[in-house]
Each structure stands twice: as structure tokens, then as C-alpha cells.
Design goal:
This protein is mainly beta. The protein is about 10% helix and about 35% strand.
Length: about 375
């Protein structure tokens, strides 16, 4: 008699194993367990059944325990450039298991907010009145400095919202990951839709990886980062495609004041002209004392430097090694010198994973934008 093994049984093997050896060992245990269970069915031995139960318990629980992050090379030098949290005052948010946001002034957290949601904060904007508009996968919300929610829109079932931006005080524009994907302008007063455009995607059925970032330009168009297509596209208010820039491994793109675009991808941050000419580039693959493994949003500061965020995946089941903590951001000069490195994982200033960093002493994204004739 042959032992039949269904495909579903492979779900016992953890999908988030961090090494090949761990997966192979799990596979070995899996087959061993099936054989023992088969023998126990034939022998009806209590001892054999107990052994099978022990192995199954090990397989289902032991491999899902947090694993200490191992990195042969330090993520950064022992002494970091800049002045730590006091280097600049900033707003901070990131994709994490808890939807946390922070304001840091003079090296201290002066305000924090935890949204009671189950998603991830992929985009957040500090408004001129001190409110924060943030997209958190399952909706987009505006909260005051007193932590009162003054506006909210829940993403419809089967959709996600990862990026949004205010237009004046009356409207919000956001991208809805869905099948089909949509660009929506909504009136905050009654959540009515005043404009809706369809956006192309590489895989309409796989909505989570479609979009993370979109920004309005000074000319009233919108720059959309098609993450699943690896393309940065500019659209007018009628949905007409005006520009396409290939960007493999894309996460986000920001329009710059000089008309160029700052594109963040998996292994580099690039300033690109409208003619797709590379004006400036910072490679994240070159040997460096500063390891940036998962960049998300990069912004150009008023002093000409570039601030690059570095995300840490809390869903990887990996615990941060306190002796070798990953960086949360670096500030790079035009000559590619790292002038500031942010690493703040310990209480009372544990900021968590980094996606969005907004300096408080200079404007970045404001309400003073428009989209076609919508102001």
C-alpha cells in the first residue's frame, strides 16, 4: 500500500523559512512524520503515535519562532555621521505590524499616534494645519494632533489603498489597488467621487503589489509609480498617458522642483529627466559601509542632499540583532557622501520600520496642488 500525500499537506512547511537548510530539514521532518503516522496506523502503537505527535508539534511550532537576524557584515560603521535624532526635526511613519507615526523634535519623540488598524502605513502627509493624512492599505484617514479622526474612507472589500494626497482642503486624490485599478478624486465632505480613472496593471488579479506611491506635479498632472509594471507614468486629469520611464524594481517616484523625477528602486536611487536621461544616481549595490537593503521613499532636501528611507520587514519573522541594527535612513550629498545615518530601534525612541520621513523645516507635499481643473 502506497502512502498518499496531498499538496495541501505542504502548507505545514513554513513559507517564511529564512534558509535553504531550514526548508530541507522541514521537508525531511515532513516526510518522516508521514511515514511514522502511516506505521502508527498499521501498528496502533501508543509510543509511535506519541512520537508522531511530537514531531508534528515541532514542525508546526518550532519553525515559526522568531529568528535572530544574521548579517556577516555590519549594517553601518560603529560611529554614525550626523547628530542622531537631533540632526533634523521630522515626521516619520513606516510599513509595520502596528500603524505608528511620530513627530521628532530636538532628538525626542514629541508626538505619536497608533492607528487601530490591521494594515500598513505606506504613505503619509503632514498637512499645514498639523493634521496627518495617511494611507494604510485598508483605507485612507486624516487625524489631528489631538489624535481625533476627522476624515476616513475605508477601502472597499477586495481592494487596497497605499498612497494618497490632499488637493486643497476639500479633496483627496488616491490610487485604489483593485481589479481594475483606479485613480480616484474624492470630496471629503461626503466621500463622493468627483473623478475616477482606470489605471493599467501588470497583473490585475494580484492587487497588493500594484501601487505604493503617486504624487501630483506642479503642472497639475500626476506621477504614478506602477510597481508591478516597473514603470513611472505621468497622466493628465483625463487619464492621457504623457510620459513613461522604465524603472525595474520600482517602489516610488517624486517630482522635483527642477522638473526631473527622483525614482527609488530596489538597488538604486536615480534622478531622471523628462527625456529619461540620468542626471544623478546613487547605487545601493556598490560595496559600502552603509547597507540599504529595502529602500522605499526618497526625497530631495532643500540643501540638495537626498534622504533615502530603508524599510525593515517585520513580517519576515526575523528579530533585529541589537548588536547590529539595520539603518532606517541615510542622507546623501550630491557627491554621494553619507552625511547622516538614522538608526533608532531602542526605547524610548524606537521608531520602527521606515517608509516616509518628512523634514519639518521645509515643505515637501502640501495641499497647494491641483489636478486638471480640480483645486
Amino acid at each position: 500500500m502506497l502512502l498518499k500525500i496531498s499538496i495541501d499537506q505542504f502548507s505545514l512547511i513554513p513559507k517564511n523559512s529564512i534558509s535553504v537548510n531550514c526548508n530541507l530539514f522541514a521537508l525531511f521532518i515532513f516526510y518522516t512524520t508521514n511515514i511514522i503516522v502511516f506505521i502508527s496506523m498499521k501498528t496502533k502503537s501508543i509510543k509511535v503515535n506519541l512520537l508522531a505527535g511530537f514531531i508534528l508539534a515541532t514542525l508546526s511550532g518550532g519553525f515559526n519562532q522568531p529568528v535572530l537576524a544574521q548579517n556577516e557584515k555590519p549594517f553601518a560603521p560603529a560611529v554614525l555621521p550626523g547628530n542622531g535624532l537631533s540632526h533634523l526635526d521630522f515626521f516619520y511613519a513606516g510599513e509595520a505590524k502596528q500603524e505608528n507615526m511620530y513627530l521628532v523634535r530636538k532628538g525626542k519623540i514629541v508626538w505619536s499616534y497608533t492607528h487601530p488598524g490591521i494594515g500598513e502605513i505606506s504613505d503619509a502627509i503632514l498637512l499645514s494645519n498639523g493634521n496627518v493624512l495617511f494611507a494604510h492599505q485598508h483605507g485612507i484617514t486624516e487625524v489631528t494632533q489631538n489624535k481625533k479622526v476627522v476624515w476616513n474612507y475605508d477601502a472597499p472589500q477586495g481592494t487596497e489603498i497605499h498612497t494618497g494626497q490632499p488637493i486643497g482642503k476639500k479633496y483627496v486624490i488616491f490610487v485604489q489597488n483593485s481589479n481594475p485599478a483606479k485613480l480616484i478624486v474624492m470630496k471629503k465632505k461626503d466621500n463622493s467621487i468627483v473623478k475616477e480613472l482606470l489605471l493599467p496593471t501588470a497583473n490585475p488579479a494580484s492587487i497588493h503589489g500594484q501601487f505604493r506611491h503617486a504624487r501630483l506635479t506642479a503642472s497639475g498632472t500626476i506621477l504614478v509609480s506602477h510597481m508591478d509594471m516597473g514603470k513611472v507614468c505621468e497622466y493628465d486629469s483625463n487619464g492621457k498617458l504623457l510620459l513613461t520611464i522604465d524603472a525595474p524594481g520600482l517602489w516610488g517616484a517624486e517630482p522635483l522642483k527642477n522638473g526631473n523625477f527622483l525614482i527609488t528602486s530596489r538597488n538604486k536611487v536615480t534622478e531622471v529627466s523628462r527625456k529619461s536621461e540620468v542626471v544623478w544616481e546613487y547605487s545601493l549595490q556598490d560595496p559600502s559601509d552603509y547597507q540599504i537593503n529595502s529602500p522605499q521613499v526618497s526625497i530631495r532636501l532643500a540643501n540638495g542632499n537626498t534622504l533615502i528611507s530603508n524599510w525593515f520587514n517585520q513580517w519576515s519573522n526575523v528579530v533585529i540583532d541589537n548588536k547590529n541594527q539595520p539603518l532606517q535612513a541615510i542622507e546623501v550629498s550630491p557627491t554621494k557622501e553619507v552625511v547622516w545615518a538614522l538608526c533608532s530601534w531602542n526605547e524610548p525612541t524606537n521608531l520602527g520600520p521606515s517608509t516616509i520621513i518628512v523634514p519639518l523645516n521645509e515643505s515637501r507635499t502640501t495641499e497647494k496642488v491641483f489636478f486638471g481643473d480640480i483645486h
